Amino acid sequence: MPQFQNGYTTSNVQGSQLQQTEWNDCTVRAVANAAGIQYDDAHALCKKFFKRRFRQGTQTRLIVTESHKLFKSIGFEVEKRTVSEYFDLRGTFGTINQFVKRHPRGRYLLSVRGHSLAIVDGVAYDNASRTSGRHRVLSARKLTPVGTTETPVVEAKPKSKRVKFAITKDGLRYENLTPKQVFEIVGGNLASVQSICAKRRPQVYGWALTFE
């Protein structure tokens, strides 16, 4: 579980008079905390680039397509990677907890269902009612100040057995999975799925199972 900081009470947010009159503004706060800028500046940027209206939420699709323009305007480069690439998975989504475990350094703007938050050096900046870290990440954008060179970091990988599995059904295929990730997709009973994987059986709950 990542460290948590209430993103609604950071100094760059709490000092704003404007934020006291707003709501449905999680993306504004997430942008402010991810980039380390003032709430009022983030508010103006979200209006300009995300077409956000006063007291209304922000569409995830605009965050995905326009965030590089927003952050470029304030001196950041945005890494263009799909959310699956951040998790090294195909066709599935990981949780906030899993994201932080894999990416313990850097500034990120994350979107989950109906909500946005910031991750800065492994700390989740979010509201106080969303601290479980279990929400699925739908999009992720890494921010890097223009002109800086980051020291290469070997990203943390979750501890798991070396054997990876692939499952196929009705034209869908998921690869490079741990037994737990297989269970998250096919459902059923976790212990049963782990046993099936350990025994290298050819099927798991109606899905064809192979191992790498």
Detailed description of the structure:
With about 210 residues, the protein is α+β, with helices and mostly antiparallel strands. It folds into 2 domains: about 5-145, no CATH class; about 165-210, no CATH class. About 30% of the residues lie in helices and about 25% in strands. It contains 8 helices and 10 strands. The strands form 2 sheets. The chain has a 6-stranded mixed β-sheet, covered by helices on one side. Strands 8-7-10-9 form a 4-stranded antiparallel β-sheet, with helices on one face. A hairpin with a 2-residue loop joins strand 4 and strand 5 (about 125). The longest helix has 13 residues, at about 60-70. It is elongated. The relative contact order is 0.14. The mean pLDDT is about 90.
Q: How large, in whole angstroms, is the Cα Rg?
A: 19 Å
SS-based class: alpha+beta
What kind of sheet is the major sheet?
Answer: 6 strands, mixed
- Assembly state: single chain
Number of helices: 8
Beta-strand proportion: 15-25%
Which word captures the global form?
Answer: elongated
Overall pLDDT confidence: 88
Write the layout of secondary structure elements.
Blueprint: E1 3-6, H1 11-14, H2 26-35, H3 39-49, H4 60-72, E2 76-79, H5 83-87, H6 96-102, E3 107-112, E4 115-120, E5 123-126, E6 139-145, E7 165-169, E8 172-177, H7 179-186, H8 190-198, E9 203-204, E10 207-211
Parallel strand pairs: 1-5
Antiparallel strand pairs: 2-6, 3-4, 3-6, 4-5, 7-8, 7-10, 9-10
Helix pairs in contact: 2-3, 3-4, 7-8
